[in-house]
Amino acid sequence: QNDPDLFGRFISPGVFCASDRNGTSVCRGDSGGGMYILAGDRWELRGITSFAGLSETGSCDTKKYVVFTNVAHFYGWIKRLTMGGGEQDVDVPKRISEMKCQEYAKLAEKQPNGV
After folding, report:
1. 115 in any annotated domain
2. Which residues of the chain fall short of a pLDDT of 50?
């Protein structure tokens, strides 16, 4: 309802929208951060920040909802990976930063002066 053109394309059992709409929200650089809820006497990870809508000027819009990855939906998969035995079945590509870091390290090895 907040922005059906944006959010409607992404809503599935694997994600959910949330917001306090009180002027606080996520912004650039917050992706991957956790959304925690208080469950009894402990905090539980409920979602992982995915993305949010932008204002008309292209800045973060604190009045729009945020899309989070639904951790509960992926709990079984997470448990299999973290409890062992499943990691070899998952093909996780390297991040660009990892690839560039390796590339730059090789360049430094080829030229002893580092130039």
Report:
1. no
2. none
Q: Which residues contact 37 (CB under 8 A, 6 or more apart)?
A: 43, 44, 46
Three-state DSSP class for 46?
A: strand
Q: Letter for the amino acid at 48? A: I
Range of the domain at 39: 4-110
Is residue 77 domain-resident?
yes
Which of helix, strand or coil describes residue 18?
Answer: strand
Dist CA 68 CA 55 (whole Å): 19
Residues 30-56 have pLDDT tens digits of 889 998 999 999 999 999 988 877 777
Measure CA 29 to chain center: 10
34 lies in some domain: yes
Note the pTM of the prediction, 2 decimals.
0.61
Question: What's the total number of domains in the chain?
Answer: 1
Q: What are phi and psi of 98, to 5 degrees?
A: -65, -45
